[in-house]
Amino acid sequence: MDEEYDVVVLGTGLTECILSGLLSVDGQKVLHMDRNDYYGGASASLSLSQLYQKYRGSPAPESLNLGRDRDYAVDLIPKFILASGELTKILVHTEVTRYLDFKQIAGSYVYRDGKISKVPSNESEAIRSPLMGLFEKRRARNFFLYVQNWREDDPTTHQNFDVTTSSMRELYKKFGLEPGTQDFIGHAMALWQDDSYIDKPALPTIKRISLYAQSMARYGKSPYIYPLYGLGELPQAFARLSAIYGGTYMLDKKIESVNIDADGKFTGVTSDGETVKAKKVIGDPSYFGAGEEPTEGGKLRVIETGKVVRAICIMKHAIPGTDDADSCQIIIPQGQVGRKNDIYVSCVSAAHNVSGAGTWLAEVSTIVETSVPEREILPGLQLLGNVVDKFVSIEPLYEPTEDGTTSNIFISKSFDASSHFESVVDDVNDLWLRIKGEPLVLQKRETELESA
């Protein structure tokens, strides 16, 4: 390993693979390494045997009749892609879409007063929706018209309301919206994970609602899309992009040390007794002492900011109340169940080439708030009906303690409990800014294959 690289990337999680692809396109010389023998890291999709091996250390019981092992691609961290969201823009601009096939998620639901209701996808659904009474529907319609018509550069659309200084609470009050309506707008449409947004300026929430509406308008039914064969396809697609532009990938490489000099600057990585030199390193928290105590006089590079509890459930039926949908998302706003954080339910099935015929995969997740995490996801589990088997994990959430601009060590954040990718792309943009010193601007590039 005598070569020197611009960047070494550790871990093949989605964040790392997106950056590896983008940096390769940018002309950087990239070496990408992972201790695992598969792509995806924490965001991998596992076969049935890999799933049981990971959680039980044993094969899947034959008595469950779950079908062929190779039919399964079970996401460790299920998330959906907003059709007009930031990840979609990256996929389109990099042309990574050529390596992927997508299917729409059939429906988006919200939990209210003990039952689930579909988030309306058009005006006729809104009129029939049990989420609001007749008068509230009229008020909500006025609110959505305001959001739809709002233009930053046109004061006539602002209705004497300054969204940059006035709070979302004040905007809800302006239109007289009930708490239950605020819940479904703020959590199922703006996709905030808790209620802290409500006393902050209204502008970010307006932009999020607009994004949701644009995503819904693209295909109808729901604003989400999902890759066939599971989310593990996403990091692999970006790895292919990196390879086209000269990136080098090494799987099944144990990382023995991340090396720094006397000034605390990164110099290289040692693996299997060999050291590779590079100017910068990017990686997920597990490669930088996540979960470790600081050595004497040492400093932690990552800190735990919380925990997330996830339950992967295998079922032989669709989630009740979803019209036998082959897939869906359900958001349980925190206020509906007396919590500080929302609970997310996502569901996909054999229709997405991720499970055996006649099986559905549901996941329930939330941020841990008590000493009994599994009890916290009960409101979500109770919506699923009969579960054939269930795998529960409690994972710490990590963030870097420094921005990396001094040490040249750039560390990503753990994946949160949300069931969409917007926070992941926020992390990609933030890392790019720190690594390159300039914002990420997506430019469609001609591949070597096309220019040949």
UniProtKB/TrEMBL annotation:
Belongs to the Rab GDI family. GO terms for biological process: protein transport; small GTPase-mediated signal transduction; vesicle-mediated transport. GO terms for molecular function: Rab GDP-dissociation inhibitor activity. It comes from the Eukaryota. This is Rab GDP dissociation inhibitor. GO terms for cellular component: cytoplasm. Pfam families: GDI (PF00996).
